[in-house]
Amino acid sequence: MTRNWHRFFTAERPLAVRRGRGPGDRSLIVVESDEGPRLTLWDTEHGTVRPLSEVTSGDLAQAVLTSDGGHVLSLHDDNGSEVGHVHAIRLDDGVSHDLTPDLPPYTLRGMDVAGRADRAVITCAAEDGFSLWLLSTDGSAGPELLLRSGNEAWNGLISADARLACVDTTDHNPGVRRFAVTVVDTVTGAVLACLSDGPEAPVRGVRFSPVPGDDRILVATERTGFARPCVWHPTRGTRVDIEAPQLRGDLVPLDWSEDATRVLAVHVDGGIHRVMEADLESGELRPLDHPPGAYFEPDVADTHCHLWASHYGPGHTVRLLHQRFDSPLRLLNGDGPENLPGPEVFPRQDLDGVRCRSTAVRSADGTSLQLWWARPRGVEEPVPLVLHLHGGPNLVTVDRYDPAAQAWLDNGVAYASLNYRGSVTFGRRFREGFMPHIGDRELEDIEAAVRWLVAEGVADPGKVFITGASYGGFLSLLAVGRLPGLFAGALAHVPMADWLAGYEDMNPALRAACSSFFGARPQDDVERFVRASPITYVADVVAPVWINQGTHDTRTAPDQVRGYVEALRAAGGNVVVDWYSGGHETSGRAKALSEQNTMLGLVRAALRQQLWDQTLL
């Protein structure tokens, strides 16, 4: 085995660009290092790109700039547990200040900064429910409670002048993740308005107008079953919907221009991205010229709605963030000339990777599924294949750079990634299609993808491996239990292996999500949770299993993984578990490379008919 594939992991690359809300034009660039995310400050007014070497603590991948550009805000937790407090970190010396010292620890479900004031809002989940808090970013005043709910509430936003805040709520439809946008007065705490399109069609906040004094909010609606931009004026009770009836699929709003006259959105049709711009004054919707690839990546149950996303720069300048499976993130001019950061931030490098193709596959009931796949370069015959499943489940695999995919392909292993039912950007029906019988529809989709890959001569039918993290890890374990003859092995990262045992150990935000997915709590319908749990099927597992699990994970807790491993071993299964010190997500190039090296070794061992628990790596 050569080490040439290491280049896909060791290459310097940015992970995200997050523009500050304040005056001027400053952006945080999240850069991957060997140890984890690091921050660089890009200031176009001064023409500088400065690594923030003093800022090393907190969840830097989700950090935001304060309006004055002097601090970043991020969650500080216990070893990646995702439960802690938001701190303000001074850029010059890295001094950190807790902005909510008197609050109990919480999980963050939203953070936004006012563009023209030293204020921010955070959305928290804790044992007492969900809450929206107003913070003074300079620490001059304590946090002020704006809203509290026993039902899921996410994604708090604040207006440019800090007079208004909004949060995505489910009080109108408890227990169902179809949000409405609730607006509150930050001075009085009074609820001023709520935008709901009824119990079937969610509404999500995107961003308040960047113009001080302009109360309008850019939101995403789903009245047709597919995402569309809408500009809502909560204090006047008016709205302007961008219907785009000529477009099939989601039109996802991302941002609006500094003068609030244009909206940036991405049309997603069958998983393929096309960036578009809407002129709110003329009503024109036009596509932008750009190369194929991904231009944003949705996130769920986290600080921001997107892991990274294209956005506006000064004026009407569009900054396109672009990736492909074989090409790391780069920043493109979407409209008009602009000086962009040089190779010190966005290295110009040819990694000689392989592009993935997109194919529509039919599931058992005829549902169309998007499947990304690729063969190793120069290979036409069936070969071993790794099928990847994203987490969430309300996430999606987009055409973004994936060093693990490239490593498999570079080692002669075909690669595929399936957007199963539960994935976002394919409309509401598809996103909710996995509920409430968790695992059933996803397994139908997984089986359909494998059958197609085998029938097309991409995969050797006896040498297909399944992998994924979080919900993808759960599906990997479930698949080898309920589809025992289909896979040669499962490589599961931070999986849910026992929904019953894991429920009480989850952080409060995840318990609410879990109940929403199942349409019940464990005490309401034990059998539903038992049926969905991989531990139920350990006696049927014939493939080897590898689990990679964090010690401080509050989403898929360690104890339920231990229980699964013990049960599988007792049933005669072949299982290996690797423990790492940390939470639900690992970070850093060194860790990712080490994990990939382990997985390559295990797949090679399986192909030699060697037991994984007897393999030295």
Automatic annotation (TrEMBL):
In this chain the Peptidase S9 prolyl oligopeptidase catalytic domain maps to 406-601
Protein keywords: Hydrolase
Broadest EC class assigned to this enzyme: hydrolase
Give the GO biological process terms.
proteolysis
Specify the signal sequence span. Answer: none
InterPro entries associated with the record: AB_hydrolase_fold (IPR029058), Pept_S9_AS (IPR002471), Peptidase_S9_cat (IPR001375), Peptidase_S9A (IPR002470), WD40/YVTN_repeat-like_dom_sf (IPR015943)
| Entry protein name | Acylaminoacyl peptidase
Organism whose genome encodes this protein: Streptomyces malaysiensis
